[in-house]
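REQUEST FORM: STRUCTURE PREDICTION
Request ID: SP-0412
Submitted by: Lab K.M.
Chain count: 1
Length (residues): 169
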Amino acid sequence: MSFKILYASSTGHTEYIAEKLNKLIPNSKLQDVDDLEDITELNNCKTLICCIPTWNTGADEGRSGTSWDQKFEAIRSTDFSNTSVGIVGLGDSAAFSKYFCDAMEELHSSFSAAGANIIGEVSTEDYIYDDSKSVIDGMFCGLPIDEDNESEKTDDRLRNWAQQILKIS
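STATUS: Completed
RESULT:
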């Protein structure tokens, strides 16, 4: 099974995490969302890994502050019922503890509305934060990464999550 890893990045952190995942997941292809001409290009992908930062903290929509924000409507109106989607979000659990990795939820709700099978939910237990829109039914809807405050946990989190995704797909 091949994986497509999509990312959008403002500072380079999200791209860096996507590159790390690309090394952990065999047969994966890395693509910047900015290079995606049409969302329907993703229709033949069986598994997508979508990496997104949270910049517009507290916003109801457009939380990533990247080109992902312009793709949500197109995602919702495309049939992804034959696609599994894993989400990785970057955030700052100290400075923005009330909005930790909120942008993951926008990807989750968009792909869910398009019929995708969301994979890779993560327990909230190993994280210190106040609130997150990305906690759904008691679990993060993807893998939260905090490179600002918990970078020492990143490699283990990525490795464990990649193994989880590979078992599911």
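NOTES: The mean pLDDT is 92.
Reviewed by: T.R.
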